[in-house]
Each structure stands twice: as C-alpha cells, then as structure tokens.
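User: Good morning. I'm curious how guanosine-5'-triphosphate would be positioned relative to this chain. Could you predict the structure with it bound?
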Amino acid sequence: MALNLNNARFVASYGTVESLPQPTTPEVAFVGRSNVGKSSLLNKLLGRKALAKVSAQPGKTANVNFFEADGISFVDLPGYGFARVSAKERQRWADLISGYFSQDRSFNLVIALVDIRLEAQSLDQDMISFLKENELPFVVALTKADKLSRSKASQQEALLARQLEVDPQQMVITSAQKGTGIDELRRRIQEACD
Ligand SMILES: Nc1nc2c(ncn2[C@@H]2O[C@H](COP(=O)(O)OP(=O)(O)OP(=O)(O)O)[C@@H](O)[C@H]2O)c(=O)[nH]1
Ligand SMILES: [Mg+2]
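Assistant: Good morning! Here's the predicted structure, ligand included:
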C-alpha cells in the first residue's frame, strides 16, 4: 500500500535520553548540521507547513521531537555543529543524538542532510562515518537545491558523493522550498518501513 503521510501529528519533545519513549513503530530520523534544513524537509515530507519549528537562526531544534504519520515515527534531532549555544548545551545535544542512536530502537532509515552548496564539512564526514560504522540504513538528502542551477546541483552531487564516499544512488537532491526530491524520499521511506 502506498505511504499516506497526510495525517501527521506531533507526538512529543524529549530533552533527555532517559525520557525517550519505548520504540513501538518503525523510525525515520533526521540528522545533520544546524541550519541544514532538517525541520523544513520533515515538514515538506509530511505536507505540513509548520509542524516542526524552522528558523534562520541555527539551533532551533534543541530536543528530540517525535512526529507520527502512517504508523511511522519521524524523529527530528537537534543539529550538530555551529549553532551559537553554550558548550554545555552543545554537549547536551550531542548526548541526545548519540544517546538516541545507542538505544535499541527500530532504525528503519536515517535521512542524513548535507547542504548541496558546500564542500563536505568534517562534521558531515563524521556523521556519515558514524552511520556506516553502526550499519545504520541511510540516505543522504542534499538540501537547498533551489539555490543552485540544475547542472551545478548535479556537479555538487558528484563531488559530495566522492568526498563523503557515498554511492550517488544513496543520495537524493532535495529542496524543501520547491518540493524537489520529496517523492523520491517518500519512496525510500516506504521501502525502508515495509
Ligand atoms: N532556500 C531554501 N532554504 C531552506 C530550505 N530548507 C530550509 N531552508 C532554510 O534554512 C533555514 C534552516 O532551516 P531549518 O529547517 O530550521 O533547519 P534545521 O536543520 O532544522 O536547523 P536546527 O533545528 O537549527 O538544527 C531556514 O531559514 C529555512 O527556511 C530549502 O530547501 N531551500
Ligand atoms: Mg530543526
């Protein structure tokens, strides 16, 4: 049956690893640097403008936020990297992200977001290495493609595939603004959660 993400709802926000709920559904998690577009892409996938909070200021998502649609949990994680928050807060986020992934959960798909405009950043490289080492199923969503021409976007895709050592088949060019790549991501989610 086709995935039906039309009845998405916010479940809850968790600020500590201990408070995370027991996994009862397949999970699709969103990871990536602060400001890369995690919450925006999640909203676009779920067809809702403001389900997850979006901000031009890096560091908007400070907790692990769970959403639910069609029996799948969508997990919006805080960004890592350059958000201007205290070292203590940054550590709390890092603990949340690694704590989430160290639990015994149903990791059906991780959507790893990378800004299509930049060269691979060391934090992106670390994230991809982490996903590979832990054998987590993942797809790389290259974000904000509306900011590049189509030819430049495919050039960047090839470059980032090389730099991150990811098969281009495992990458999807996306734009939360224009809807590029959303159908493709929905297909990947459906496959991963079947
Ligand atoms: N042009 C363009 N801007 C985007 C796109 N996706 C997100 N943005 C913008 O990028 C900024 C950050 O978006 P968020 O979705 O809040 O990013 P995030 O990764 O959730 O950020 P944190 O929660 O801070 O880690 C916002 O100003 C968005 O409007 C896109 O596809 N195209
Ligand atoms: Mg966010």
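Strands lie at 9-14, 27-32, 64-69, 72-76, 107-115, 138-143, 171-173. Residues 131 and 138 are 7 Å apart (CA to CA).
Let me know if you'd like a different ligand tried.
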